[in-house]
Amino acid sequence: MTKDTAPQLHLDNQLCFPVYTLSRLITQAYQPLLKALGLTYPQYLVMLVLWEADEKGELPVQVRFITEKLLLDTGTVTPLLKRMEEAGLLQRRRSSVDERVVEIYLSEQGRSLRSQAETVPFELLCRTGVDPKRGIAMRDEMLAMIRVLQQS
Predict the structure, then answer these.
(1) Which of 115-147 are b and which e, b meaning 16 or more Cβ less than 10 Å from the residue's Cβ?
(2) What does the pLDDT look like over 63-98, one tens digit per residue?
């Protein structure tokens, strides 16, 4: 006979587990799409930040800008940027105003990769079978939760 005195501790009753599992599965679904581009999922996220900044005429960006956008620390982002620079996707340069600040520029190779990546979001959505309106609603719910958790 088992006691059911703490159902809040059952795996099926946790919010974190389906979010964690979904994150892993989405990342796995991206892998074949990104492999064709020569990118890992974290590199893809960095490229999304850089492509958007480029589109807005906001390049170069500081490393801090990338860490804030991706909610990652510099200890995670710096080695990632170094590998991306070695792959020819971007350039890292010390600021001429403040040498403590590293600025990130897109290389021509990184910029041209954008056109190849344009189909990735649509292809991923097709793989999930999720209705686009439902996908947008789910994303908005998750973003709202992220904002709440960031403030607490």
Answers:
(1) eebeebeeebeeeeeeeeeeeeeeeeeeeeeee
(2) 999 999 999 999 999 999 999 999 999 999 999 999
